[in-house]
């Protein structure tokens, strides 16, 4: 029988998390992973990778054509990043809560990763899938056998 109690962090929901190149460069990987673990979420996969533009464009396909797209692809491919599959009850929403809003000053509040450590929207340290559909697509994109 399944156990849906709040302390059960074996919940099936999974989300794709990135510590973007700014977070790795600033040595905030441990800080981000500590917050994920303290929240009660679990790591199901974890890698340090440097990605090419093809993967970056596929990951951010929904933003193709927007004014920031080129800079975003350049930034996300600029150095090593950490990619993780994070698992637990309501993992998608829970990580978005930990991350805070996209703009680290106007939207993310203190106490969140972006609110505590970010200043600029592009360099906002982390990514987390925004829906169940995005999570499935992104986990397949980053970890699927292709
Ligand atoms: N971004 C940017 N300028 C913008 C909006 C977004 O540089 O005006 C970057 C930022 O790094 C953001 C990413 O593009 O995290 C993806 O944007 P999205 O709206 O999906 O935000 P998120 O889901 O990451 O909060």
UniProtKB/TrEMBL annotation:
<comment type="similarity">
    <text>Belongs to the NDK family.</text>
</comment>
<feature type="domain" description="Nucleoside diphosphate kinase-like">
    <location>
        <begin position="12"/>
        <end position="146"/>
    </location>
</feature>
<dbReference type="GO" id="GO:0005737">
    <property type="term" value="C:cytoplasm"/>
</dbReference>
<dbReference type="GO" id="GO:0006241">
    <property type="term" value="P:CTP biosynthetic process"/>
</dbReference>
<comment type="function">
    <text>Major role in the synthesis of nucleoside triphosphates other than ATP. The ATP gamma phosphate is transferred to the NDP beta phosphate via a ping-pong mechanism, using a phosphorylated active-site intermediate.</text>
</comment>
<dbReference type="GO" id="GO:0006183">
    <property type="term" value="P:GTP biosynthetic process"/>
</dbReference>
<keyword id="KW-0546">Nucleotide metabolism</keyword>
<keyword id="KW-0418">Kinase</keyword>
<keyword id="KW-0067">ATP-binding</keyword>
<keyword id="KW-0460">Magnesium</keyword>
<feature type="binding site">
    <location>
        <position position="96"/>
    </location>
    <ligand>
        <name>ATP</name>
    </ligand>
</feature>
<dbReference type="GO" id="GO:0005524">
    <property type="term" value="F:ATP binding"/>
</dbReference>
<dbReference type="GO" id="GO:0006228">
    <property type="term" value="P:UTP biosynthetic process"/>
</dbReference>
<keyword id="KW-0808">Transferase</keyword>
<feature type="binding site">
    <location>
        <position position="102"/>
    </location>
    <ligand>
        <name>ATP</name>
    </ligand>
</feature>
<keyword id="KW-0479">Metal-binding</keyword>
<keyword id="KW-0547">Nucleotide-binding</keyword>
<protein>
    <recommendedName>
        <fullName>Nucleoside diphosphate kinase</fullName>
        <ecNumber>2.7.4.6</ecNumber>
    </recommendedName>
</protein>
<dbReference type="GO" id="GO:0046872">
    <property type="term" value="F:metal ion binding"/>
</dbReference>
<feature type="binding site">
    <location>
        <position position="20"/>
    </location>
    <ligand>
        <name>ATP</name>
    </ligand>
</feature>
<feature type="active site" description="Pros-phosphohistidine intermediate">
    <location>
        <position position="127"/>
    </location>
</feature>
<feature type="binding site">
    <location>
        <position position="68"/>
    </location>
    <ligand>
        <name>ATP</name>
    </ligand>
</feature>
<keyword id="KW-0597">Phosphoprotein</keyword>
<dbReference type="GO" id="GO:0004550">
    <property type="term" value="F:nucleoside diphosphate kinase activity"/>
</dbReference>
<feature type="binding site">
    <location>
        <position position="114"/>
    </location>
    <ligand>
        <name>ATP</name>
    </ligand>
</feature>
<feature type="binding site">
    <location>
        <position position="124"/>
    </location>
    <ligand>
        <name>ATP</name>
    </ligand>
</feature>
<comment type="subunit">
    <text>Homotetramer.</text>
</comment>
<keyword id="KW-0963">Cytoplasm</keyword>
């Amino acid at each position: 029988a399944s156990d849906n109690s709040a302390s059960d962090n074996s919940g099936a929901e999974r989300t794709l998390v990135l510590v973007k190149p700014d977070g790795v460069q600033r040595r905030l990987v441990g800080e981000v992973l500590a917050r994920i673990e303290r929240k009660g979420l679990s790591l199901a996969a974890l890698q340090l990778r440097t990605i090419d533009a093809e993967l970056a464009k596929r990951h951010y396909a929904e933003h193709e054509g927007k004014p920031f797209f080129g800079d975003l692809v350049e930034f996300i491919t600029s150095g090593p990043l950490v990619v993780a599959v994070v698992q637990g009850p309501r993992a998608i929403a829970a990580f978005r809560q930990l991350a805070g809003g996209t703009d680290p000053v106007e939207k993310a509040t203190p106490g969140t990763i972006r609110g505590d450590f970010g200043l600029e929207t592009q360099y906002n340290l982390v990514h987390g899938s925004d829906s169940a559909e995005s999570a499935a697509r992104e986990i397949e994109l980053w970890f699927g056998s292709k």
